[in-house]
Write a structure and sequence with these properties.
The protein is mainly α. The chain is built from twelve helices and no strands.
Length: 252
Amino acid sequence: MLDLGPLFDTLWTTDLLWLYGFAVLTGLVRGFSGFGAAMVFIPLASILVPPQTAVITLWLIDVLVTSPLTIKGMRHGHWPEILPLFLGAMAGVPLGVWLLATTPETPMRWTISIIVLLAVLVLASGYRRKNRMPLPGVLAVGASAGVGSGMASLGGPPVIVFWVSGAASAAQTRMNIFGFFGMTALMSGAGHYLFGLFTPERLMLAALLIPAYALGIFSGNRMFGLASESMFRRFALTICAAGAILVMPVWR
């Protein structure tokens, strides 16, 4: 039988309610846009729990809840673009997992905050690529995504900037992102397991948050063709920026 004492000794009931709210909000963003889960949940949850716990918890709930969308993304994704990014990510994930397992909490908080803020700034700028990126550049984007994915489930920022700045439609970009994230998540999960990061407390916390995250995913997915994409994009980026600022160690 699992000993849940260590979890509830450090996680007050009010904190758990906040984590429920963060999970619903994260699911809304992820279900609507296909990305942004780590940019929302990791900074916000890291206010209440160690960053490593936030990373592993999100990995668990995201893999379980989004598996139908991941399968759909793998079927409808544009593989000539996804495959080179994934090959690059294969080289970066092991380094990212090692950083997650060995980096102290304060440097991890600063790293998460800076990565998210940089991604928000680039996405908010409306940057668009005018020319097709050469293969070495695509591989480099994939490698940086792999490091971010292994370290903090933050593989999204470089890949999101790559696809959002391109010419693909929002629907195609969404499918590409679901397919790519599904593949990199499996690699990251294997690394997390080898480093012993799936503790009983983190597994139980993920189990508690799955319903809230599933509710957000379902609602966000239903909103995808109904709400204004530009409005929701601004909302998501605002939440990401706020979370990145709040997770900075200066507030603790």
